[in-house]
Amino acid sequence: MKRLWLLVFLAAAAARAQEPALEKKLPARAADAPAATRELTDEAGRRVRVPAEVRRIVSLAPNLTETVYALGAQDRLAGVTQYCDYPPEAKSKPKVGGAVTPSIEHIVALKPDLVLAQAHGMNRRETVETLESLGIPVYTTSARTVDQVLESVGHLSEAIGAGAQGAELAAALRARLEDLAQRLKGRAPRKVVFVVWHEPLISIGRQTFLADALRRAGAESAVDATQDWPQVNLEELLRLQPEVLVFASSHSEGVARTVESLRNQRGWRALVAIQKNRTAVISDAINRPAPRLVDAIEQLARQLHPEAFAEKTEPRNPEAKNREAERRANSAARAIQ
Question: Model-level pTM?
Answer without folding.
Answer: 0.81
